[in-house]
Amino acid sequence: MTATQQVVFPTEGKHLLEITREGPLFIMTMVDKENRFTPVMCKAICDALDHVAEVVDKEELTEAALMTRGQDKFYSNGLDMEKAFSVPGFTDHTFMPMLNKILLFGIPTIACLNGHAFAGGCLMAMAHDYRVMRSDRGFMCMNEIDLPSPLPAGMSALLRYKMHPHVYRSCVLEAKRFSAKEALASHLVDAIAEGVEGTVELGKQVALKIAPKTKAGACYGMIKEDMYPEISERLMMNAKL
Amino acid sequence: MTATQLVVFPTEGKHLLEITREGPLFIMTMVDKENRFSPEMCKAICDALDHVAEVVDKEELTEAALMTRGQDKFYSNGLDMERAFSVPGFTDHTFMPMLNKILLFGIPTIACLNGHAFAGGCLMAMAHDYRVMRSDRGFMCMNEIDLPSPLPAGMSALLRYKMHPHVYRSCVLEAKRFNAKEALASHLVDAIAEGVEGTVELGKQVALKIAPKAKSGVFYGMIKEDMYPEISERLMMNAQAKL
């Protein structure tokens, strides 16, 4: 895809994602307001990831990174409760495998938290290799305990193996709302900046810095598989492929 | 149980635990000096936990928390070596399942370290959701390596999944004695205060703050089961009787 080309997913009907390219950066913008996860959204994300992987492969890129972002106030507010649970097994067969696909993606991934990342949105962010966050507005939060709702083994593992134990404890048992400063201090995010544009610029800087690791080729994804086996096996535990 | 009622365990003979209640707080005080873990002590703790769970259930409490504490110089000094090992399989069948019961308890748990938490006592503290510690006296320590004694898989896992790796390494391989300041800096405890009374008050504050999470009902315990599967499966690995 060229720098001016925009690719959307789904390809027909109302699009939920826009993929743009800036040199080695592939930017996936979720454009569905609260960017809640439905069967259609999850499929769009997986198709978008496949598309990016194809381009990286076809052009034999030695520098590449994927940055995801939302718009305005939301990165993602989590599962669309109504749509998600109208399909039996959505979490096991669709949502968690989508998280696993991001987790093990074959090039560096950067989540640009332009706004709130709640529940499923927080999980999606944590599935990335890196995170930047807007410092003046927005929270990261796992609020299942307040709904109340269970936190399935795969989702819990994704947090457990990426967070310090005491942070994980407070995140899950308190539904703690992490501001950008707290997220930075707790090592949930790698850097913070003011405003949406500032955060997007910061995300691109982080992405550009890590993009050369794509030179590792197939080894990048392989290394990640061996980094996160405990997460991956639990995310995929009940997936029917 | 009412606020004035004191419930003791065991119910007959010399009691080792006293349960009191202050509103949403259930306070379990270990009153056996060094509070060493014997078969009787472990059963008393499990019975006490069952009692608290029953009251929470019966009164349909939407705010509740359990705070455990010792008296004077000791939270707990660990296993009663003589009594514990006079019973074959004590660790596998009794002690580790007791730790698991605390680990997965269905309401928030706070360990109030009024004094030393050594070996089994340190493990009991780490099994709780939160810990406060007295700042002017007392240590947390895993001294197995100095005895020397093994540190079975379940116990090691309890530390490993609740501590930063470098803290875990020093805790277990050095028998490092963590004073309250070090424990706080290492995130082994959540807050510290001076004196026994100060620490108890702090523990109650922490407990009161987290007690509303009991509103999640059965989900609290379910969420904890999915938080600590690696610990739980190893604690229960060789248990024949689930308490």
Automatic annotation (TrEMBL), chain A:
Pfam family, one: ECH_1
Record's keyword annotation contains Nucleus: no
Protein source organism: Linnemannia gamsii
UniProt keyword Kinase present: no
Top-rank taxon, per record: Eukaryota
Transmembrane segment boundaries: 102-127
Keywords noted in UniProt: Membrane, Transmembrane, Transmembrane helix
Name of this protein: ClpP/crotonase
SUPFAM superfamilies xrefs: ClpP/crotonase
From TrEMBL, chain B:
Gene3D superfamilies reported in the protein's UniProt record: 2-enoyl-CoA Hydratase, Chain A, domain 1
Biological process terms in GO annotation: fatty acid beta-oxidation
Record-annotated membrane-spanning stretches: 102-127
Molecular-function annotations in GO: delta(3)-delta(2)-enoyl-CoA isomerase activity
N-terminal signal peptide: none
Species for this entry: Linnemannia gamsii
Keywords: Lipid metabolism, Membrane, Transmembrane, Transmembrane helix
Stretches assigned to coiled coil: none
An example Gene Ontology CC term for this record: peroxisome
A Pfam family assignment: ECH_1
Catalytic reaction annotation: a (3E)-enoyl-CoA = a 4-saturated (2E)-enoyl-CoA; a (3Z)-enoyl-CoA = a 4-saturated (2E)-enoyl-CoA
Protein name: ClpP/crotonase
SUPFAM superfamilies in the record: ClpP/crotonase
InterPro entries for the chain: ClpP/crotonase-like_dom_sf, Enoyl-CoA_hydra/iso
Domain of life: Eukaryota
